[in-house]
Design a protein that fits this description.
The complex is a heterodimer of chains A (76) and B (222). A 3-stranded antiparallel beta sheet of chain A has the order 2-1-3, with helices on one face. The radius of gyration of chain A is 16 Å and the shape is elongated. By secondary structure, chain A is an alpha+beta fold. Chain A is 32% helix and 28% strand. Chain B has a 9-stranded mixed beta sheet, sandwiched between helices. Chain B starts with a strand and ends with a helix. The chains are: A alpha+beta (76), B alpha/beta (222). At the A-B interface, α1 and α2 of A face loops of B.
């Protein structure tokens, strides 16, 4: 089985990289981009039957730093 | 006083740290990240700067899960002292021993220069050689030194006088100009600037000596 984990900076945490991307889009002539948030997608190849609980534990222990990041799990 | 310097793949300030500790009079062992235990009777663990595990995933995240870090956490829980500089600070926040997190610098640039810092408190083994308000100069060399903490955490740091150093001219966007913080029991210090790179006249300044001497004095007399 596969799972995908989306890691994003929490709302309210300033994302300097997203801001730089927003500026770059503006200078390329793309008007109206009012915000960019940049995150990570982590794809996991897992043994069949791995529970969402286990994946959550992976996120909490390593994949996300919950001080500044939130995560979302998608089992494929 | 016995000190252990942790070495991860990608650490690059480990020997500088050892030199600074030895110059202050410590007996220093280097400890490889795969070792499960610290040497016996270690008083101070130093987690050095560098790019442990290539900064993959997040700076310090992989190192924080290494076998030796379990022992470092236990050492601190027993009341032991720890110092994390630069990547070492990132590792200590990732282990949860220090609050907050270090994010990408606000200007997105790697910053490598000497910076002036104000000493926030003299109430710790690391800062008792300074007076609160003293201005010292240490080098910084980092890409991810933008200290972030939620409002509640910041209030606690301020109320408990746990901000050890602040930038005079904030180079990286850190909340409240914070350059270094202390743990609740004041025995763990994490900081982005490098005191170990300011201990010899050849470094261009010796402001860091008092930090290492302070720890030595406190631990030798304890």
């Amino acid at each position: 089985m596969k799972a995908r984990v989306y890691v994003m900076l929490k709302n309210g945490v300033l994302d300097p990289q997203g801001e730089a991307v927003r500026h770059a889009l503006g200078s390329l002539g793309f008007d109206g981009v009012s915000g960019v948030r940049q995150g990570k997608v982590i794809e996991l190849d897992l043994a069949d039957g791995t529970t969402e609980e286990t994946i959550t534990e992976m996120c909490e222990k390593l994949l996300a730093n919950t001080v500044i990041e939130s995560y979302r799990i998608e089992v494929l | 006083m016995r000190a252990a310097v942790i070495v991860f793949p990608g650490s690059n300030c480990d020997r500088d740290m050892a030199v600074a500790l030895k110059a202050a009079g410590a007996d220093v062992s280097m400890v490889w990240h795969k070792d499960a235990a610290l040497p016996d009777n270690v008083d101070l663990v130093a987690v050095p700067g560098g790019f442990s595990f290539g900064d993959y995933l997040r700076c310090g995240a992989i190192a924080a899960q290494s076998p030796i870090c379990k022992s470092v956490v236990e050492h601190v829980q027993r009341g032991g002292y720890a110092l994390g500089v630069c990547n070492g600070f990132q590792v200590l926040t990732e282990t949860g021993l220090l609050p907050g997190a270090l994010m990408r610098n606000a200007n997105l640039k790697f910053i490598c220069k000497s910076v002036d810092l104000t000493v926030g408190t003299s109430d710790s083994a690391f800062t008792n050689g300074y007076a609160a308000g003293d201005v010292v100069s240490y080098p910084v060399a980092h890409h991810d030194g933008n200290y972030s903490i939620d409002d509640e955490g910041l209030k606690a740091l301020e109320a408990e006088d746990r901000v050890a150093f602040r930038y005079v001219d904030n180079p990286n966007g850190s909340v409240a100009d914070i350059a270094g913080v202390l743990s609740e029991n004041r025995r763990v210090l994490g900081m982005m600037p490098h005191p170990e790179r300011a201990v010899d006249a050849g470094h261009g300044g010796t402001d860091g000596q008092a930090l290492f001497r302070g720890v030595l004095d406190q631990l030798v007399s304890a």
